[in-house]
Amino acid sequence: MISRPYNFAAGPSTLPEAVLSRAADEMFNWHGSGMSVMEMTHRGAVYLGLFEKVMADFRRLLTLPSHYKILFMQGGATAQNALIPLNLLGANRKADYVNTGHWSSKSIAEAKQYGDIHVAASAENAAASGLTHPFTFIPNYSGWSIRPDSSYLHICGNETIGGVEFWQWPDMRALGAADVPLVVDMSSHILSREIDITQFAMAYGGMQKNLGIAGVTFVILDEALIKERVKTPLAGCPSVFDYRRVLENDSMFNTPPTYAIYMTGLMLEWIDQQGGVRALESRNKEKASLLYSAIDASRFYQTRVEQSVRSRMNIPFYLPDDRLYEPFLKGAQERGLINLKGHKAVGGLRASLYNAMPIEGVRTLIAWLAEFEKERA
C-alpha cells in the first residue's frame, strides 16, 4: 500500500499534501506570533488579519461585486436547511424547491417545518420521464411550476449521492418567476469551476469538500435580499443565526470556527498556486472525463446518471452483482484507493473527485477497474 492513500471520500474529503504540511509547520507558531491559530482570540489583531485575508481571497476567487456579502457560519449546510426559511420566508411564508436527490429532499423536509413549501419540480418519478432510476436527471425546465409570489426558489447545484450536477442554471425570467430569488446549495462544487455567483440571490455550503475542513459554512448573498426584500427573520430565529446580525458583526457575532477558517485560507492560497479556478476547472474536467470514459467503455460497470447532467465532483457507479462489492473494495484498499463505498441511500460505489484529488489517483482507480473487470467479468 502506498504511504498516503488516494482518498475518494465525499466529505470531509482529501486535502492537498502541501496544505497539510503547511498546517503542521504552523501549528505551534503562526507567523512568529508564538501561538497556534487554535489558541488565538478571534478579537485579536493577529487573528483578524488572518481572517480578513481569507475573506478577501475568497471574494477575489469568486469575483464577487461589492453588493454580494460573505458570511462564515457554523452548523454545516444541513443547518442552512432551517436557517434559509427562517431568514428568507418573509410574511407570506411561501417558498419553492426543486427535488433532484437526497440533499434536496432533506432541504425540503426541513423547510416544511416553517412554511408553505411547494415542490416546483422533482426527479423522483423517473418513469414519468421515460427513465429507470430516480434522481438521475434534472427535470426539464418546461415542466417547472414556480409560484411568482414565492419568497425564493431553492436548488441543489450538485447532488453528491446521486451524482447529478446543474450545468445550465434556471433562467428565472424565462420560467415566469423573474422576481423570485434563486438560492443554491453549492457545498460540493464551489470553486471547482468558474460560476457567475451573481446569477443567484444566495449560495451556501460547507467547506469540507473543496475548500478545507468541517466546521465552517459559507453563505454568499446579495445584500438586498436581507436588507430590502426580507428585512427580518421569522419569529424565533436565534440571533446567532440571523443573517443580518451575522453580517453586521462581520461573521463575528459569536466565536467563529477559527481553525477551520484558517484551513480554508490555506486552501484558497493553494488554488492560487494551481493557477486559479480556471486551471482547476480544466483539471477537474480531465479527471472526470477519464473516469467516465473508462466506465462507459465497459459492460461490467454502470453509471445511471443522464450524461448531460453528470457530476464532475461525485461519480457513482455500480457492479453487475452485489457479491462483488466486498472484494472490489478490499482490493481497492490494498492498492491505496479508499472510501469508494457508495452512500447507504443508493449503494454501489462512488468516487469523489474534488479539487485536491490528483489525477494520479484517478488513473490508479482506472487501472484497478480494468484489473478487477478482467478477473471477475
Name some characteristics of this structure.
377 residues; alpha/beta; Aspartate Aminotransferase, domain 2; Aspartate Aminotransferase, domain 1; seven-stranded mixed β-sheet; two-stranded parallel sheet; 10 helices
Shape category: globular
CATH topology tier name of the largest domain = Aspartate Aminotransferase, domain 2
Kindly report the spatial arrangement of strands forming the biggest sheet: 2-10-9-8-5-3-4
Number of strands: 13
Using the 3D structure, state the CATH architecture of the largest domain: 3-Layer(aba) Sandwich
User: Which value, in Å, is the CA radius of gyration?
Assistant: 21 Å
Distance between the termini: 25 Å
Secondary-structure element order, N to C:
EHHEHEHEEEEEEEHHHHEHEEH
Overall pLDDT level = 97
Q: Could you say which structural class the secondary elements and strand pairing correspond to?
A: alpha/beta
**CATH homologous superfamily title of the largest domain:** Type I PLP-dependent aspartate aminotransferase-like (Major domain)
User: What's the structural domain tally?
Assistant: 2
